[in-house]
Amino acid sequence: MKLILACAALLCVSCAYEFDCPTDVHGDCIERRYAHPDCSYYFRCYDDPSGCIAIVIPCQDDLHFSPKYQECIHPYHANCTDSTTTSTTQFTPPPVEDVSAFSAARSYDWYGGDAIVYFDQVDVNLRECFKNGTTFVPGREGVYFMSFSGGIPSRTPVHIKIRPTNWPNYPSTIYRESTTAEDINMMYRTFLAGMSDTDYLNYKSFEPMESGESLQASFAGFSLTDMFHEVKAFYVAREEPFEFNQRIPMSRIFMDIEDNYNKTGREFIAPETGIYYFFFGAGQQSGKTNRVALQTWDEEFPKTEAELWMNSDSHNGLEMASRSTILRLTAGERAWVTAVEGPVESMVDHCQVYFGGFWYNPAHATTIAFAVHRTSPWQSAMPLDPVEFHEVGVNQGNAFNHAANVVIIPKSGYYYIELSIGSMPHTTLDVEILLNGNPETPENLGERIAHVSVESTNHTGVATSGRGLITHLWQNDILRLRANGLSGIFSDLNKQTTWMGLLLYEDYY
Ligand SMILES: *[C@@H]1O[C@H](CO)[C@@H](O)[C@H](O)[C@H]1NC(C)=O
Ligand SMILES: *[C@@H]1O[C@H](CO)[C@@H](O)[C@H](O)[C@H]1NC(C)=O
Ligand SMILES: *[C@@H]1O[C@H](CO)[C@@H](O)[C@H](O)[C@H]1NC(C)=O
Ligand SMILES: *[C@@H]1O[C@H](CO)[C@@H](O)[C@H](O)[C@H]1NC(C)=O
């Protein structure tokens, strides 16, 4: 009622337009919002005792209504043509065009060889930094975060290489020699690189790669320099195996902006109180298992914040795995990577053992970060939708709704989303990140924005996989995870399974 009064009193110009609200086959009012001839208003239809009636509502702050998104958004994104005037204003895009980020995937298989992989599905490409479907060319000096994945065919080793120009042995490869997987596997890795204004990155896969409808092969990244206020980031790695069950000494410091990694103490010391994204990896020797954890202090005891547990011994050559998490640390708190069990493999060419991270300090967005963990395994013939998370680690901005086990996007913008996930012994892993839709409605489960799929079951123990991506999400979009039937997820109190996200760039309305 208030809206009608406000409309009548203030907006009689736009009230001059009539709108007949549509009804469905049962004659019931379809309560939706509809375009108005003047882009800065919209009609809202609702069921009133007097019938299905429309009221006119103005958009705030020079926004335009978008029927597609059912809300008032930046005129450039709304792309609405005003039919009340004859002017054809061209709206300039919001300043998002000034930051570098991209996210791409490939929808068909790759046959291997020393050539550059082409990505036909480019979802995000800000500043047009991803050129020709093949090459990340930021054209600006800065610190860049990268996430990439590949689908590995049965009985095939893996050698995927994304290396900055002039860095032949940069720790940025996925490398596996084992050929025992009898079906498709999926592997991923993340890394940080300092790049000059002439550097570029390509994705090369020397061995064949599987990528189809599930888009297992992906390549995404963003500029920390463009997105954050002050860049505080580090990236260290090991170039040889390590046999002991203690903190892993990292022999090479590839990046340590502002000196926050203590090589002797083998730990990162948080320079500020805030939210940190961390990633780490470990290699396994043929037939050997290991367990590597990211730890912090809990009073005087080490506490595991994330674990990579590779307890499968069926691999007949080198294996590796990677993962990430997000933590809130107070200034001076420490985080490190420990070999909890078994030897770890690492070599100068691939640096399977590594540790890195950055302070999440967005310059163009509200601070929205979440990291949620499972603390128990799941395995069933029936799907699990949504996948439940038992422990909420970080939930700045309340994006994660614990009661519903979904993420409800608080602000429209570009998000980095990542899933690190453990698989059960002798079992496939089949988990999708779904956007909107409804778990109860098979014909509308939602749009799949990522799929982590390990079809191979020839792993005698727990293994890990995952996927990172950058995507644009609208306020009130809902993300959830669905695990398909006949698959399994491994996680225990050491948190082998984590779902996380960060808002990188918020839409300016
Ligand atoms: C806006 O709409 C026009 C015509 O439908 C289309 O050519 C153009 O690509 C759209 N622009 C955006 C930013 O979506
Ligand atoms: C993109 O393709 C064009 C035409 O083939 C070529 O001239 C250009 O160098 C390519 N750019 C990059 C960054 O590879
Ligand atoms: C680095 O670690 C070593 C060994 O634990 C310690 O002696 C040293 O004080 C640490 N340096 C800093 C700057 O914290
Ligand atoms: C599974 O791996 C084992 C150990 O490497 C190998 O001997 C066996 O042939 C594999 N089984 C299948 C079904 O591929």
UniProtKB/TrEMBL annotation:
<feature type="domain" description="C1q">
    <location>
        <begin position="363"/>
        <end position="509"/>
    </location>
</feature>
<dbReference type="Pfam" id="PF00386">
    <property type="entry name" value="C1q"/>
</dbReference>
<protein>
    <recommendedName>
        <fullName>C1q domain-containing protein</fullName>
    </recommendedName>
</protein>
<feature type="signal peptide">
    <location>
        <begin position="1"/>
        <end position="16"/>
    </location>
</feature>
<dbReference type="GO" id="GO:0005576">
    <property type="term" value="C:extracellular region"/>
</dbReference>
<dbReference type="InterPro" id="IPR050392">
    <property type="entry name" value="Collagen/C1q_domain"/>
</dbReference>
<dbReference type="InterPro" id="IPR002557">
    <property type="entry name" value="Chitin-bd_dom"/>
</dbReference>
<dbReference type="InterPro" id="IPR008983">
    <property type="entry name" value="Tumour_necrosis_fac-like_dom"/>
</dbReference>
<dbReference type="InterPro" id="IPR036508">
    <property type="entry name" value="Chitin-bd_dom_sf"/>
</dbReference>
<keyword id="KW-0964">Secreted</keyword>
<dbReference type="InterPro" id="IPR001073">
    <property type="entry name" value="C1q_dom"/>
</dbReference>
<dbReference type="GO" id="GO:0005581">
    <property type="term" value="C:collagen trimer"/>
</dbReference>
<dbReference type="GO" id="GO:0008061">
    <property type="term" value="F:chitin binding"/>
</dbReference>
<keyword id="KW-0732">Signal</keyword>
